[in-house]
Write a structure and sequence with these properties.
532 residues, alpha+beta, 8-stranded antiparallel beta sheet, 16 helices, 13 strands, disordered N terminus
Length: 532
């Protein structure tokens, strides 16, 4: 009689398999969200490019043989996966998708550590590759919204100082620069956040390849940050000079491909010193990577999840030290914990407090308002995150009002949602009268074109055309209520008719703001209209 031998699976192997399965369960939803950000045009994400770069780097390294096998590094990987589960738990509770993405970065660090990427003939740094993965997340959007306004101010200030020795008829006021009567606006798309992110990603990629000492890598990150800001100041200065000498040059520096070539050229100038200096100061040998002595942390022994595995001594995974009979229960507990985390109710922190009901104008320029309902998705969004929105038609103009005490959650530029709906959106610039207003042209897939105007106002009397400035003002005064006032009219509409509806909207919603004393007295403006 033939006997069938059932292979014995040790409890330790079962524990490790359960650990891997629990990590996969926790990663499914963040991965789905991340891929959505790559495919959704409203995010304008370049994350897929960084993901492909990571795949190339990993393939480059994993195809080379191991020089040595450090089994102790597995303990670091398990600790990372446990910390990733904790981050995923917090992200699920607070409904912050970015935190879930950070957990994926920790997972990548752990997997590359298990693959011994730092100990191969073509070694790469698991830590810096995991940092590079952060650029695959929609962080640029967050950076632009939170730091866009101070970056605008800094870029305009630097450009003014660069131009002042050469032009006497130079007027600088906030983000506006006037050179001999030509007005240049340092608007949000050209705040420098895109070039900043690109330069930092370049440094992180070099760190992954050359694996310098941690302090050296951090120093080059600071250098890249400074050079990116200076490069954006140079670009704005070149644009101002190009606008002034446009008749001599024979081309418009704002037109394609000249505008993009100028932007890429200044980025290349910013990156060249970083590349040359980084190669000179870095080493490809993993033996030369300095280890940080544990005596640096006499009071608090930092967990291995907070620093690269080469910086801290190995610590065994606590679960593997359990008696063999308890390791099975630990495996089941890990799987149960993963399932509980992914099914926890989500409760966002940045929910708008209850606000008074929005009162839409009864009529504008003789056109009685016709209320329009929100979509099911919009209604569900405001029900979950607070705030409120109302829509109405006034003749040929569609008016949308959004009110919130959490502008970081609710306020956004019109191009975000319009691109998601399939429109091609072109930023036209900013108009400052009667209120600051950002202008866009939206073109549908059927060829229909629309003129879109948006202004952000607060109950303190602030009015701005920039989401970044609105968020910056809200950070300074977190108790304020902010509103988005969006007006959409057909592109072919008569200018006087559109202006009449615009002025009526400003008056009806009491959006008038005190006029600012300004040195700009030339009504002819040349406004930067292209993105970086």
């Amino acid at each position: 009689m033939m006997q069938i031998t059932v292979p014995h699976i040790s409890s330790r192997h079962f524990l490790r398999a359960s650990f891997a399965l629990a990590s996969a369960i926790l990663a499914i939803e963040p991965l789905r969200w991340l891929i959505t950000t790559w495919l959704d045009p409203s995010y304008q994400s370049s994350g897929a490019i960084y993901a492909c770069l990571i795949i190339v780097l990993v393939g480059y390294s994993v195809s080379s043989p191991l020089r040595r096998n450090h089994k102790s590094q597995r303990n670091h990987a398990y600790a990372l996966l446990l910390f990733s589960a904790l981050v995923r738990f917090v992200g699920q509770l607070l409904a912050i998708n970015i935190l879930d993405g950070v957990a994926l970065s920790l997972d990548i660090y752990a997997l590359l550590t298990l693959l011994n990427m730092a100990n191969r003939r073509r070694a790469i740094s698991p830590f810096w590759v995991s940092v590079l993965f952060l650029f695959a997340l929609p962080f640029e959007r967050v950076v632009q919204r939170v730091l866009g306004y101070p970056m605008q101010e800094l870029s305009a200030f630097g450009a003014c100082n660069l131009l002042s020795p050469f032009f006497h008829d130079l007027i600088c006021e906030g983000v506006r620069i006037q050179v001999e009567g030509r007005d240049v606006l340092v608007d949000l798309p050209c705040s420098g956040t895109a070039s900043l992110m690109l330069c930092l990603a370049f440094v992180v990629c070099l760190n992954a390849l050359y694996r310098p000492k941690f302090m050296v890598a951090a120093l080059w990150g600071i250098v890249a940050l400074v050079l990116a800001i200076i490069g954006n100041m140079l670009r704005i200065s070149f644009i101002a000079v190009g606008l002034l000498y446009e008749p001599v040059l024979g081309f418009d520096v704002m037109a394609q491909p000249f505008h993009d070539l100028l932007g890429y050229g200044t980025i290349a100038l910013s990156l060249l010193p970083v590349l040359l200096g980084h190669r000179a100061s870095s080493t490809c040998s993993s033996e030369k990577v300095a280890a940080v002595s544990p005596k640096w942390f006499p009071i608090i022994r930092l967990p291995a999840t907070l620093l690269p595995a080469t910086l801290l001594p190995a610590t065994p995974l606590p679960a593997t030290l359990l008696p063999e009979c308890l390791q099975v229960f630990a495996a089941v507990g890990l799987l149960s914990l993963a399932l509980i985390i992914v099914n926890l109710p989500r409760q966002a922190l940045d929910v708008s407090r209850p606000l008074a009901e929005i009162q839409m104008p009864l009529a504008l320029e003789g056109h009685v308002g016709r209320p329009q309902g929100l979509t099911a998705m919009e209604s569900a969004y405001f029900e979950q995150y607070g705030g409120q929105a109302r829509k109405a038609l006034y003749g040929k103009m569609a008016l949308t009002l959004v009110q919130t005490s959490s502008p970081l959650r609710h306020l956004h530029a019109p191009d975000d949602c319009l691109r998601g709906l399939g429109y091609r959106v072109e930023f036209l610039g900013t108009r400052f009268s009667p209120v600051p207003t950002a202008l866009y042209r939206a073109t549908g897939q059927q060829g229909d074109s629309w003129h879109v105007a948006v202004t952000f106002t607060s109950d303190r009397g602030d009015a701005t055309s920039s989401v970044a400035e609105a968020i910056w003002q809200w950070i300074a005064h977190p108790k304020t209520r902010w509103s988005s006032v969006q007006r959409i009219t057909p592109w072919q509409m008569n200018g006087w008719e559109r202006d009449a509806l615009e002025n009526a909207t400003v008056a009806a919603l009491d959006m008038d703001v005190p006029p600012l004393a300004t040195a700009f007295n030339n009504p002819q403006q040349k406004i930067e209209t292209q993105k970086e």
